[in-house]
Amino acid sequence: MISVKDLKLAYGKRVLFEEVNLNFTKGNCYGVIGANGAGKSTFLKILSGEIEPNKGTVTISPGERLAVLKQNQFEFDEQTVLNTVMMGHSKLWAVMKEREHIYALADFTEEHGMKAAELEGEFGEMGGYTADSDAATLLSELGVKEEYHNSMMKDIPSNLKVRVLLAQALFGNPDILLLDEPTNGLDIETISWLENFLADYENIVLIVSHDRHFLDSVCTHVADVDRQKIKIFTGNYTFWYESSQLMARQINDKNKKVEEKRQALLDFIARFSANASKSRQATSRKKALEKLSIEEIEPSYRKYPGIIFQPLREVGNQILNVEKLNKSVEGRKLFGNATFTVNKGDKIALLSRDPLAVTAFFNIITAETLADSGSYEWGSTVTHAYLPQENAQYFNGDLSLMDWLRQYVPSHVADADEPFLRGFLGKMLFSGDDVMKRANVLSGGEKVRCMISRMMLQSPNVILLDQPTNHLDLESIQSFNEQCIAFKGIVLLSSHDHTFMQTVANRIVELTPNGTIDRLMEFDEYLTDERVKALREEMYQ
Prior knowledge:
Blueprint: E1 2-11, E2 14-24, E3 29-34, H1 40-48, E4 55-60, E5 66-68, H2 81-86, H3 90-103, H4 110-125, H5 131-141, H6 158-170, E6 176-180, H7 188-199, E7 204-208, H8 212-218, E8 221-226, E9 229-234, H9 237-252, H10 258-276, H11 282-290, E10 320-329, E11 332-342, E12 347-351, H12 355-365, E13 373-378, E14 384-387, H13 401-406, H14 418-427, H15 444-457, E15 462-466, H16 474-486, E16 490-494, H17 498-504, E17 507-512, E18 515-519, H18 523-528, H19 530-539
Parallel strand pairs: 3-7, 3-8, 5-6, 6-7, 12-16, 12-17, 14-15, 15-16
Antiparallel strand pairs: 1-2, 1-4, 8-9, 10-11, 10-13, 17-18
Helix pairs in contact: 3-4, 9-10, 10-11, 16-17
């Protein structure tokens, strides 16, 4: 168990935590959520001992081992991949090194022999004799091929370093596991493996993640960081979000009788409890929800941005035709013979195993770069707005947010005065003096919210989204997701956010080196369809 008592952390006048009292217990997985800057990652660092609080204590049950997902990819550059993983179990690693040292001694004495025997006992109890093979299995399951296992960390690709550090945290079945954004850099298949691994994990797990599908798959509880406090709620992220929204509506509905409100909440809990039996974490989450009382449900005080795309006109019959597009970079074929037509009502999830392929495709159809060959044609009724993955080029000038947005006012807007512009910025939570901030000093999340304001201003009937959840907090992601579902126009979307792809897309187009795979189906169905799986393997050969 981890016990947090009277915790306080402040940096000068900025107070992150004040009188935080919590217990984290075995068998539970806690999703740590909160707005950007609320202190989620800082809280994990306090639990791990990396940061010392101003006041209060963190107590871990005696004998329990804590493991942390390291963020510094260069920390283990002079170690082999296998050794890096095994170093995650610091006690085992220390015994291994001491054992090796004794056996390497030239003047081996009887005393050394007794110490070696003692170490052999410890080594065996901690699983030392299978440590190499256990580490190798873990690496392979996380997508690090055997050919890299004996390489130096400094010599492997950066995307694999992330996986090695994740294997390091998971190695040796720690009693307490702290994971900060563990899905970053993982593909769909590896994330699914990690979901299954954590769903079966019987110890304590705390996770910071912006991936709602991942949180829903593994979490039994939510630890909400808000207003200098942390509160633990039963259920996964979706249960927390929908129950807090329901409670807020109940409070605002003055006409409903108390008993009607109570029954609505009980029905809601029962529905989610039944759904929990279908999830990977069925037993623990279902039991937790069955014990939940409605008094534990509280309304959320979070601010959600108002993302609303209002098309100036409906799209016509011709929207976008793509014909035999090809693109390579430095001899690397990103996609070939891309051919498809966008139709009315389409909300298309664009996929590729090459992370550069979809971005290159978006840049081609928005005329930011050229294809090697092939063509595309937009319909005359289309007004498209693009949210690129990289936006630095838009924020070079020293303009205020008000003046920054003003330069993107379309020609159909007659009077873009201050109240008009404030309205768009206000929807994205820039209020009061915030609109006078300089655009070139914004955080990553603030820049994305500015780009969304720019998109809304254009009144598009087609929206193009390349990794729209990057840098956004869960509140912004939730609002963006809901608007894309409600949007009456066309959506072309690429995202690592599984829930975004599943809930928005009604069609999947995958760009491969040997053509496109085009299916009218939802994202989850596409990933599990056996015929599609076989075709995907064939198209990437």
